[in-house]
# Entry
Amino acid sequence: MRPIHLVPALILTILTSVAFAHGVEVTAPDAKTAWAKGSRQKVRWQVAKVEQVHIELIQVATKKRLPVVKNLKNTGDFEWKVTADLEPGQYKILVISTKDEEVHGVSAVFEIR
# Structure
């Protein structure tokens, strides 16, 4: 079997395609983020040709999905008051097109304290 040699530009193209495979890039929160319960925080994302989105919170340990907001106009950001009764731990934000659930994106894992 011969080794495969990939051109750096091809590798970059492949990685970029994987990163945007589902059409939504969630830019905030990022992996360095820690949100306090009860605080106001910005969720940010980028997606084209989507009119409305749903935003959900995913608890990493249990994979439980909690609704944050439904049928939100796609403006690319949303200020959310972090629910005071959440368990401290690791979470992700999921942004989903209201018309096509295949068009979605997930944030990096972040902390809620």
Q: What stands out?
A: The radius of gyration is 16 Å. The chain has one helix and nine strands. Strands lie at 25-28, 34-35, 40-46, 52-59, 65-73, 77-81, 89-97, 104-106, 110-112. The CA atoms of residues 52 and 99 lie 8 Å apart.
